[in-house]
Design brief:
Elements lengths: L2 H7 L6 H10 L13 E3 L6 H17 L3 H11 E5 L2 H16 L9 E4 L12 E6 L13 H5 L11 H12 E12 L9 H10 L2 E6 L12 E7 L7 E7 L4 E8 L1 H4 E2 L2 E2 L4 H11 L7 E5 L6 H4 E2 L7 E6 L4 E6 L11 H4 L3 H15 L26 E4 L2 E2 L7 E4 L4 E3 L2 E5 L5 H8 L2 H10 L2 E2 L3 E3 L2 H19 L16
Parallel strand pairs: 1-2, 1-4, 2-3, 4-5, 6-8, 14-19
Antiparallel strand pairs: 5-7, 6-7, 8-9, 10-11, 12-20, 13-15, 14-15, 16-18, 16-20, 17-22, 21-22
Keywords: DNA-binding, Methyltransferase, Restriction system, S-adenosyl-L-methionine, Transferase
Pfam families: Eco57I
Organism: Barnesiella viscericola DSM 18177
C-alpha cells in the first residue's frame, strides 16, 4: 500500500498473530459464551478480524451442534462489519466465503456494510463486542468527511486523529456489558487531542486493560501502538496493565491499577505501582525552581543561518544539542536578543551579499517591503538567553551513553534540542550526576514516548520537573530534612 493511501485513508492491515492476541484479550475465545453474541469490526478492511471471528464461531458452534443451516443463519445475524473501500470490501467478502466454505457453508448473506462508518447508526447500542484496527490518519488529511468527523466529541480538539473518532463510534455501538478492543496509536494516553476521550474514560470507567507494545512496531506505516480494552459495565476501577512480548507473541500481565494510579494531571501513565507512585511524586512536585529548561533556536532555515557562514561579523558559536557538535550561527540580534535593523547588518558588504543570495528562500514569495523581519529567525525562542550560562541536552535518548550534555558559555547559542538554564549557580557536575544516571533513563522510559531503535523522547517540562525534584532532594539530604526512602527514586528497580 502506498504511503499516500496510508496517509489519507488510514488503511493499515493487521497481521494474523495480532488479530489472535486481540480477540483473546477481549474474551472472544472458543467457548459457548461467544455464540449468539453480536460482534463488529467497524473498519474491517479485507477481513483480518472477521475471518478469525468466523473461524472461532464455526468451530465453537460445531462442538455443540451439526446444524449447518442454523450456523449459516447465525453467521448472518451475529457477525458484522463496515468497509468504505469498494475494492477492499469485495476482497473481504471473498475471504469470508473462503472461511465458511471450509465448514460446508456457502452463499452466506454477510452483514458487511459497504459504506462510511461515521454515518452508520443501525448498530448503536447492539454490539456485545467491538474489535478492530481503526484507521490512523490526521483529520486534516481527510479527503472527505472532515465536517462530519469534527462533529464527534472526541474530535472537537485541534490536531485530531481519526482513530479517536472510532473509539467514540465503538463506545456508541456497545450494548450494556459489551467489550471493545482496538489496536491504535498510544498517543491518546497523553495527547491534547485525546483529552476529551480521557475525560470520558475517567467519568465512565470503561477502561479495563491495556497492552503496551513498547518499541515493537507491527505496522511499518504508523506510530507506536497499544492494545486497549473497554467494558461497558458499572463500577470498573481495576485496569489490567500488560506488556507484549514480540518474540513469543505473548501478553504478560504486569499489574492491576486503579484510575487514581494511572491518572497524573489528566494524562494516563502505565507501569507497576511503585514506579507510578514515583512518577506522580515528580509530576506533582511543588518545589523550588533551581533550573528552567527551554527549547533552542528555531531559525526555520538552519541551512542559511547555521553552518558554513562566510563571514565572522554578526555570528556566534552555536552547539547542536542533539549531537554536541559546535559550529557558527549568523545572529542578527544584539546581546539582549533584540533584532538588529536590516540597515545596520547590511552595511557590511559580506553580510549584505549573503542575505541577497538567500533572500528568495527566506522571503518565500513575500515582498521585502511587506516583510521587515525577513532576515531574522523564524521564531524568537532562546534569543534572550544567548549571553547566559546554560547547558545543552539532546531530547532523544536510549541509555546513559546516548546523553549529550554540553556546557554552553555566555555568548553562545543552542539549536536542535533543549538547554538548561540555572536560576542559581548549578554546576555542570551537579547536572551530570542527575542526568547521566540510570534513574533518569528509567524516568524518561516511564513517559513512554517511543522512538525508533529503542530510543525515548522527552520535552522541556519533563526534564525540568525531574531536575528540580532531584536538586531539592539532594539539598534536603544535605540538610538532613527528608526521609531516606525518598532519596533514591528508582534504587530498588534498576
Amino acid at each position: 500500500m502506498g504511503s499516500r493511501q496510508i496517509k489519507h485513508n488510514g488503511q493499515v492491515f493487521t497481521p494474523g498473530y495480532l488479530v489472535i492476541s486481540i480477540l483473546d484479550y477481549c474474551g472472544y475465545v472458543e467457548s459457548p459464551y461467544i455464540l449468539r453474541k453480536h460482534i463488529i469490526d467497524n473498519s474491517c478492511g479485507d477481513g483480518a478480524f472477521l475471518c478469525e471471528i468466523v473461524l472461532r464461531y464455526c468451530r465453537t458452534f460445531l462442538k455443540y451442534s451439526n446444524e449447518t443451516q442454523l450456523l449459516k443463519k447465525e453467521l448472518q445475524e451475529y457477525i458484522h462489519g463496515i468497509e468504505i473501500d469498494s475494492e477492499i470490501y469485495g476482497k473481504c467478502i471473498e475471504n469470508l466465503n473462503h472461511i465458511s466454505s471450509q465448514f460446508g457453508i456457502t452463499d452466506v448473506a454477510w452483514d458487511i456494510v459497504r459504506g462510511n462508518a461515521l454515518k452508520e447508526r443501525k448498530y448503536d447500542g447492539k454490539m456485545d463486542f467491538v474489535v478492530g484496527n481503526p484507521p490512523y490518519v490526521r483529520v486534516h488529511n481527510l479527503e472527505s468527511d472532515y465536517i462530519d468527523v469534527k462533529r464527534f466529541t472526541f474530535a472537537s480538539g485541534g490536531m485530531t486523529d481519526l482513530f479517536l473518532v472510532f473509539f467514540e463510534l465503538g463506545f456508541r455501538m456497545l450494548a450494556a456489558g459489551g467489550t471493545l478492543c482496538y489496536i491504535t496509536p498510544s498517543s491518546w494516553l497523553n495527547s491534547l487531542a485525546g483529552e476529551n476521550m480521557r475525560n470520558e474514560i475517567i467519568y465512565n470507567k470503561y477502561l479495563t486493560g491495556v497492552v503496551d507494545l513498547g518499541h515493537f512496531q507491527p505496522f511499518k506505516a504508523t506510530t507506536y501502538t497499544m492494545i486497549s480494552r473497554f467494558e461497558k459495565r458499572e463500577n470498573n476501577n481495576r485496569i489490567e496493565y500488560d506488556v507484549y512480548d514480540s518474540q513469543k507473541n505473548h501478553i504478560c500481565c504486569i499489574d492491576f491499577l486503579s484510575y487514581d494510579e494511572i491518572n497524573i494531571r489528566n494524562k494516563f501513565y502505565f507501569s507497576n505501582r511503585k514506579e507510578l507512585d514515583l512518577l506522580k511524586r515528580i509530576r506533582y512536585s511543588n518545589v523550588k525552581q533551581y533550573i528552567r529548561v527551554k527549547n533552542g533556536f528555531a531559525t526555520l532555515y538552519d541551512e542559511i543561518f547555521i553552518g558554513n557562514i562566510p563571514f565572522d561579523k554578526y555570528t556566534i558559536p552555536v552547539v547542536k544539542a542533539s549531537t554536541g557538535k559546535w559550529s557558527r550561527a549568523f545572529f542578527p540580534y544584539d546581546k539582549e536578543g533584540n533584532p538588529l535593523s536590516y540597515e545596520q547588518i547590511s552595511s557590511d558588504k559580506n553580510v549584505c551579499a549573503y542575505l541577497d543570495n538567500n533572500a528568495e528562500k527566506l522571503l518565500k514569495g513575500r515582498k521585502k517591503e511587506e516583510t521587515p523581519g525577513w532576515f531574522l529567525y523564524g521564531r524568537a525562542q532562546a534569543l534572550k538567553d544567548v549571553c547566559k550560562e546554560k547547558y545543552a541536552i539532546n531530547t532523544c535518548i536510549k541509555d546513559i551513553n546516548s546523553i549529550k550534555l554540553t556546557e554552553v558559555p555566555p555568548g553562545s547559542g543552542v539549536y536542535s534540542g533543549l538547554y538548561i538554564l540555572p536560576n542559581e549557580h548549578i554546576s555542570y557536575t551537579q547536572l551530570e550526576k542527575i542526568i547521566r544516571n540510570e534513574e533518569f533513563i528509567r524516568y524518561i522510559s516511564l513517559l513512554k514516548n517511543y522512538k525508533n531503535g529503542g530510543y525515548y523522547t522527552f520535552n522541556s517540562k519533563d526534564i525540568e520537573l525531574y531536575i528540580n525534584y532531584k536538586i531539592n532532594l539532594d539539598y534536603a539530604r544535605r540538610d538532613n530534612n527528608i526521609p531516606s526512602r525518598q532519596l533514591d527514586l528508582f534504587k530498588s528497580i534498576v
